[in-house]
Design a protein that fits this description.
This is AAA family ATPase. By secondary structure, the chain is an alpha/beta fold. The protein folds into four domains: 225 residues, Rossmann fold (3-Layer(aba) Sandwich), CATH 3.40.50; 45 residues, no CATH class; 88 residues, no CATH class; 147 residues, no CATH class. A hairpin with a 2-residue loop joins strand 14 and strand 15.
Length: 555
Amino acid sequence: MELMKKLPIGESDFKSIIEDNMYYIDKSLLIKEILSGGRVILITRPRRFGKTLNMSMMKYFFRNDQDNKHLFEGLKIWNEKEIIEKYLNKYPVIYITFKDLKQNNYEDMIKSVKYTITNLYRKHKESVDVLEEFEKEDYIEIAKGIADNVKYENSLKNLSEYLYRYYKQKVILLIDEYDTPIQQSYLNGYYNEFINFMGNILGNALKDNEYLEKGVLTGITRVAKESIFTGVNNLDVSTILGKLFNDKFGLTWEEVEETLRYYGLEYEKEKVIEWYNGYNFGGLEIYNPYSIINLARNKGEIKYYWINSSGNSLIKQLIRQSTAEVKTKIEELIEGKEIESSIDENLVYGDLDKSTEESIWTLFLFTGYLTWTKHTGEEGEPRYSLKITNKETLQFFKKTVVDIIKETKIELESIIQNIIIGKYKEFGIKFKKIVKETLSYYDISGEEPERFYHGLILGMVVGLSKKYIVKSNRETGYGRADLILIPKEKTEPGIIFEFKKYSIDFDKDLKDSAEKGIKQIEEKGYEEEIKSYGIEKIIKVAIAFDKKNVEIIVK
């Protein structure tokens, strides 16, 4: 029996994947499309959609210091004889990736960028042979990591000239995840200091660089800082809104089927579609490759793969600090509705601070948390209908909102204190306010409301665990109380919570519902467990609800 090929989990080096005979979905015709594109090409896609692997493939294809024919034999590009003849291993390649640069302060980030370039200079020391004395000095300073910022800002442009002189051939410049450090600088509050340094490095290398054969950059967003792309001649931009390269990043349904079939997996097509589809790249349905590969690895088990693979901090931060309008629209999205917004392909991180709605929805779209369903603007007007991409990203939105509720738990704890000290009315008012603010993030059909109210009270009592034993949904007396608090100090009161969902058939109104809750606590002997600890004072709380409407009785 033939052994299954190993899945390339966490592997983005093209050479290793091919030489180790790992499972590879052939995207090699991207090379042909790149060659027919502009002189500088910027490709933006969400994280973990194969950008680094594709860049690695191009590096091995073009670089002239290796013979890599064996890597491409049998791939689709191999049939393009003219391209193989003219381009395979014929160019000096500058390959640089910024994907791991995630430092949280300005000084460390500058050091990391410099170190990345220093390494590049060390790798290409062959070109030193053709340099003038003064150029050698600059080269050595960068290779030693002691050059000043200005020399680093010109480093990629200069290196392309040095390699051109050495090889008598223009250079292919590949810059992977160019915007990772920029996004990091925004997230950690040093964007304004950092953007000019980074913008100059890239801008100098891409603008009027006569030694450049082709420049390809990948990232998640097209960062609009005047210095980076303005003035770059013959620039092609491929985003998820356009058709360019739309099947070269992420997987088509055919590729998903082929992968799952190869690994002999029984899977429910509907579930795979519901969980991992939904990406719309230039009108083409695309699946999340990271989730599909992990699905195959876990023998078809449906789980949150992409969402749990980090990289969500910026989105979380934006949800947290967003305006009431944005929060309301997020509620609508969670309910399965679509929203409409203009999308600005030139993302200005500075605008995120001002909570410019357009910038926030643009970022949500480009990072893969939302998808576009149709272009709704007039011709040329970038206005789109947006919705949550799939079940995996829906879970992210729900969980983020829950986390934000938890972050307010200091306020929540003080609400519970109101019950302990006898301020029952105040408890009622504040509790209702919190419900209004937060319940709309939940699906309020089916089982969700009980879970919501239960979770909210649990959130409130988290901080009381030093003073109280908290028992949730325990067998108590003859039935089950939803939540009981048993004080560790016998002089303090015990508290019983009962949640009642309003029934249109059996309850007159919400108040009637709540009264039945109190009655249930008394009739079913829920107080027994607390009394067994020697506690005398017991407070009974019934919370009746009908979606967002709440009635509370405390006795």
